[in-house]
Amino acid sequence: MLAQLIIGALMIGSVYGLVGLGYGLIYKASGLMTLAQGDMLMIGAFLGLTFYKNLKMPFIVALLLTMIIMFFLGMFIERILVTKLLAKGAQMVYVILCTISISMVLQNTAMLSWGSNVLQFPSIFNKNTVLVFGMKVVPENLLALGVGLFCMIALHFFMNKSKFGTSMRASAMDEMAASSLGINVPATKGASWGIATMLAGGIGVVVGPIFGVYTSMGAMIGQKAFAGAVVGGYGNMYGAIVGGMFFGFLETFVSAYISSSYKDFISFGVLILVMIIMPKGLFNEEVME
Amino acid sequence: MENVNTNSMIDAIKNRMGILKDNKIKTIGIIAVVAVIAYMLQERYLSLILCFICINSIAVSGLDILFGYTGQVSFGHAGFYAIGAYTSTLLSMKANVPVILSILLAALLAMIFGTIIAFPASKLVKHFLSLMTIAFGQMVFMFISVTDKLTNGFSGIMNIPNIKVLGYTFTSNQSYFLLFATVTVFVVIGKKRLIDSRIGRALIAVRENPHAAAGMGINVRFYKILAFAVSAFLTGLAGAFYAHLMGFISPDTFTANQSNIFMTMLLFGGIASLVGPVIGSAILVIVTELMQSFVSYQMLIYAFFILAVLFYLPNGVVGIAAKIKAFLVKRRERKVK
User: Fold this and answer.
1) Per-residue model confidence (pLDDT) at position A285
2) Which among A90, A92, A275 is the nearest to B310, CB-wise?
3) How far apart are CA B242 and CA B264, in angstroms?
């Protein structure tokens, strides 16, 4: 029982962590906040469902194709909408509002094109359960955990070892210095939005078989992931993962041992408490004026 | 000498003309609005729309004090709205408190919650403030949807009593409209008085530059909390009115979308203005009602409203009106010359 709970918590935690990572990435790269990550996850799930179920592609192809499409969607949003808005001298709050309206547009587009019912994502593996250390585990949970961990590690190496990743970190640190060193700052900004969106979309495909696919599936995940990013220290990639795991565990254990209907209430309560007591998060990122 | 005299005379004439013309436009506008309202009051359904406009105006005016004048963003005003609605309902139904008193108590409770939220929120910067208010709105929503014993969960509460004042019971939508319109007018006048006062100037100073405001001896934290409290009070009041007008409430009304709708109304009408919230809520309520048959597109329309405001009308409808006015004044000046 306990071990299964832990695996469930790790699974949901890695989902929150990966979506939250996107928030941190965007915040670091452009100092902006998006609220559309959850809906990116939803769009990703719908795209994956379409590719996998309706177009009969292999799962891995569906996943990669979705991620590529989501990357360009994120880049499009940054290049076309956000940059234009900032060029007009808009405040940060207006960018947040812009992303809120993007999320409304995405939800409604999904509803109009795929309907408002919960769609069943066919299971990816033939087996219902697999044995891990003598326990029965749903393979999709393991897949979500695996994809989550893989993306996190890949992103870590991409940011630290590759040239483009380094230039992304450089332009996040100081735009002017980076551009004077010949780094294409707009491209790095667009890429960071693209990567954030891509991660959310990819994890959406993976959680599709677990939660089912419906238009409002992303809203709650997006907000929890955000909470995780804040608890970890907003803008810190590793903090977002730790924070996401924290909320995964909190939620799973609260619903197992206290009450499942109050789990979201308690999660948000913990978030507000963290913001009051420890606003810098676990990794000491600056949030106060 | 003479030249100066004629110049000042021309100025005086111009001023007088300006005032006259302004007053003329205002009078015509007021007459037109009253005529439309008088026409709409003949029908039950149309008066209900008018009631919604008033309720939303009150709530959005509250949000305007917070966002427009103090620069504190809130995406959780549906939480205060819900607190107002549920408190007044439960007090009047379960504790048999007279309705008018329960409304006031509900608004006060919303104000207390606003103050509590404002203590940590007044320290946070924009992004985190938005997140905190979102979390607050979600917590209220979760609470009312899972606490079945108290709030009846998603089935909602029915048969909420009507408002009673001095033995007179408000039953028709028309009578409700007269009550709400009076309150709205009081709210708008009160807001003007507040903004023109020392407090209002302090709020605007906090919005423009918190550090400079603090340097001038303004207690920034106190005014931020004050703005939250006043804003929560007005939104709670609107929520209580909503509950008693509809006679039925359920958590569906108080989702995060409701907060976004308030924000859209405020931005579309124009922030930091007296009539902006009223115009914004009037236009959006009417558009929503016209779009009843496309109910699934409703949020899409709101989204495009927000995007349009963000990209093309940075100051909302009031901003356009001001632009047209400035243009007319310029033309008039050219003619005089």
Assistant:
1) 62
2) A90
3) 19
Distance (Å, whole) CA B32 – CA B35: 5
Q: What's the CA gap between B196 and A183, in Å, rounded?
A: 50
B260 CB within 8 Å of a chain A CB: yes
For chain A, the structural domain boundaries read: 2-277
Q: Tokens 């029982």, residue? A: A1
Residue that is written with structure tokens 């408490």 in the block: A273
Alpha-carbon span B69 to A218, nearest angstrom: 33
Closest residue, chain A, to B121 (C-alpha): A276
pLDDT digit string (tens) for B42-76? Answer: 778 888 888 899 999 999 999 999 988 988 888 88
Cβ–Cβ under 8 Å, residues A201 and A67: yes
Contact call for B126 and A93, based on CB within 8 A: yes
In the structure encoding, which two tokens stand for residue B48, read together?
């209900």
- Domain topology for A2-277: ABC transporter involved in vitamin B12 uptake, BtuC (1.10.3470)
The pLDDT of B309-337, averaged and rounded, is 80
Q: Which residues of A touch B302 (CB under 8 A)?
A: 101, 104
For chain A, first and last CA: distance in Å? 45
Quickly count: other Cβ atoms within 10 Å of residue A29's Cβ. 24
Q: Do A112 and B296 touch (CB under 8 A)?
A: yes
Domain locations in chain B as residue ranges:
18-253
Beta bridge partners of B169: B164
pTM for the model stands at: 0.85
Predicted confidence band at B85 (pLDDT cuts at 50, 70, 90)? very high
Torsion of Cα atoms, A209 then A211 then A214 then A219, to 10°: -130
* Phi, psi dihedrals of residue A62, rounded to the nearest 5°: -60, -45
With contacts defined as CB-CB under 8 Å, which chain A residues touch B294? none
B212 contacts chain A (CB < 8 A): no
Predicted local distance difference test score (pLDDT) of residue B84: 92
Amino acid at B163: I
Query: Is the CB of A276 less than 8 angstroms away from the CB of B314?
Result: no
The residue among A140 and B56 whose pLDDT is bigger is B56
